[in-house]
Design brief:
Elements (H helix, E strand, L loop, with lengths): L1 E6 L4 H10 L5 E7 L8 H4 L11 E2 L3 H4 L4 E4 L6 H9 L4 E4 L12 H4 L8 H5 L1 E2 L2 H9 L3 E3 L3 H15 L8 E7 L14 H4 L4 E2 L7 H13 L5 E7 L6 E8 L6 H12 L5 E3 L17 E8 L4 E8 L3 H16 L9
Parallel strand pairs: 1-2, 1-4, 2-3, 4-5, 5-7, 6-7, 8-10, 12-13
Antiparallel strand pairs: 8-11, 9-10, 11-14, 13-14
């Protein structure tokens, strides 16, 4: 069994990693760190793990990390940038779940994340971990930057269309809704139950940190700059992301052609489900899974293509995709532990 370290094991994504690895055929949690809960057991923090995983939670000790075979860094943005270089010095492969190594240009971090990047040399070494797009590079990587939750659903929806050049690369509008767990486990006033229940609101309009991540990946797919108008919303549910995307199609592009393109790219992908008409993606149908459900409609009246994607933000949008990346890096079936 692969001995796995989870650095930052008590956040929601850390919990999901433990949950997935407990059923993985080739890997198990071995060393768990937590600054806030050091001295307790993971089953004290999450009682669902009692008698399943009672590992102690410890402050980060690089010597103990070095005893493991693989590392997940599930730390907040701005923390991984200082910790991951130390983790790499152990000689182990790392999947980082923060945003600290997703952008190739260090100069973008002050604008979008609010801090100076202190390890710019690793940005070129890091491989962006969207398996359906980048698995060849992932297989050879030492450091994989796990994609953000919104960018996962959006890029999977748009990558084939932009790569085939059947839609315009400008005037792309993304209306996305996320459950509250996407904001993490740390208590915040705006996420307090009386504040967010029976409520529905937009946030970080024009300034969400996932915008450059999405534009970076989709520009690479299109071979030219892609500009997005992205508006995220908070929905009073625990988990799930639904993204509704509006694009302009090129002349003579038909709904049948769109279907052929999606089939070409995704018919053999284990975690992409192309829904037949009249079905549309729903968050409840992907909850707790590593699936991305996709559907599309071409509005002949307006010339707009509408693409809808649904994922679980904690699984395909975080921990599940991280395990999928680990599977690729280890040469295992991508579905291991995820079905």
């Amino acid at each position: 069994m692969l001995k796995v370290a989870i650095v930052g094991a008590t956040g929601y994504t850390g919990r999901e990693l433990v949950h997935i690895l407990l059923r993985h055929p080739h890997a198990r949690p071995y060393y768990l760190t937590s600054e806030s809960f050091a001295g307790q057991k993971i089953s004290d923090v999450y009682p669902q793990f009692r008698q399943l995983c009672d590992l102690p939670l410890e402050k980060l000790d690089l010597e103990k990390v070095a005893q493991c075979d693989f590392i997940f860094a599930a730390l907040p943005h701005g923390t991984s940038v200082n910790t991951v270089p130390q983790l790499l010095q152990t000689g182990k492969k790392v999947v980082d779940l923060s945003g600290d190594f997703r952008l190739q240009d260090a100069a973008m971090y002050p604008q979008w994340y609010g801090y100076e990047h202190t390890a710019p040399e690793l940005l070129q070494q890091s491989v962006y971990g969207l398996p359906e797009v980048n698995r060849v590079e992932i297989a050879k990587a030492t450091l994989v930057a796990n994609p953000g939750c919104y960018p996962t659903g959006v890029q999977l929806a748009l990558f084939p269309l932009l790569a085939e050049g059947v839609v315009e690369s400008e005037d792309i509008i993304i209306d996305a809704k996320s459950g509250v767990s996407g904001a993490g486990r740390t208590p915040k006033q705006a996420l307090h139950f009386p504040e967010c229940t029976e409520n529905f609101k937009a946030y970080k309009v024009t300034g969400h940190q996932h915008i450059p991540e999405m534009e970076q990946g989709l520009s690479r797919a299109a071979g030219r700059p892609v500009t997005l108008l992205f508006t995220p919303h908070l929905v009073p549910m625990i988990r799930g992301i639904l993204s509704t995307i509006y694009l302009r199609v090129k002349p003579l592009v038909t709904e049948a052609l769109i279907g052929e393109i999606y089939t070409k790219y995704y018919e053999n992908e284990a975690f992409i489900r192309l829904l037949p008409s009249p079905e549309l993606p729903e968050t409840k149908n992907v909850s707790g899974t590593n699936f991305c459900d996709l559907a599309y409609r071409l509005d002949q009246r307006t010339g707009r293509l509408i693409v809808i994607s649904a994922i679980d933000n904690l699984v395909k949008g975080a921990a599940g995709q991280a395990v999928q990346n680990m599977n690729i890096m280890q040469g295992w079936p991508e579905t291991a532990g995820l079905q």
